[in-house]
Design a protein that fits this description.
Strand order of the largest sheet: 6-5-9-8-7
Strand content: 15-25%
CATH topology of the largest domain: Arc Repressor Mutant, subunit A
Largest sheet: 5 strands, antiparallel
Distance between the termini: 21 Å
CATH class of the largest domain: Mainly Alpha
Radius of gyration: 19 Å
Order of helices and strands: HHEEEHEHHHHEEHEHEE
Amino acid sequence: MKEIPSDIGSKRARVVLQECGLINDPTALSCEDIAYSRGVTDIKALNIDGSQGRIMIDGNEAIISYDNKIYNEGKRRFVIAHEIGHFELHRELLNNQVHNDDEKTLSEWYAKGPHEKQANKFAAELLMPSHLYIEKVGGQIFNLDLIKSVADFFQTSITSTLIKYLSLGDFPIAIIFSNEGKVEWSSFSNDFLLQYVPKGMDVPENSVAMDFYDGHQLPNEPESIEALDWFLHDFNVKKHAEVGFYEQCIQLGDKAILSCIWND
């Protein structure tokens, strides 16, 4: 059975959910209402160049802003939840400061330092309580339809829902984000057979992602690939050369693809 996360961010998020009466229904209140109930006095949509979220803390009060160019509702909710995390976890550290968060601090794979990672864990748990997430995905065969269904239920982005699956899903998976034909980041379930795709690597020729970059439409169903297609640089790839893998992709921007990979 998957374990409920015990990190400081996740634990604090569960306290907030409990105190707000949301532990079994995290969408019963909006992120804005949760923030207001914790002492945030205003939440603004602004044109913030170079940042996606911002918090200004003054003692036990705070003002949160988010970039008005965020059009995905799941991402907007994550940004607000991340800033609530800073308020709950780091108000003394950030008191009387304006703290900005950009794409990197809001991303699990880019975030540097404990405070941003804690705020990300807080946001993920606030929006997708682990005990409910496990109920949604437990015993289910992995596919993107499952992830989309879970994302719809929690009103979260596909990316954040997939990242949560890495630690709580029953099927080991890898997720690889590429932009303009280059790998920008990758992340793996602890029990996925292979664990290394180098940043900056060209998207491999025989991958579903490369079909997209070659101008083809993404298929609706997973397609079979070989371990060597994506994991040529993993020292353990020869051990698993005969294992069947599948790849299914989501387009995240004009030139950005999220590849989900799992094995038989």
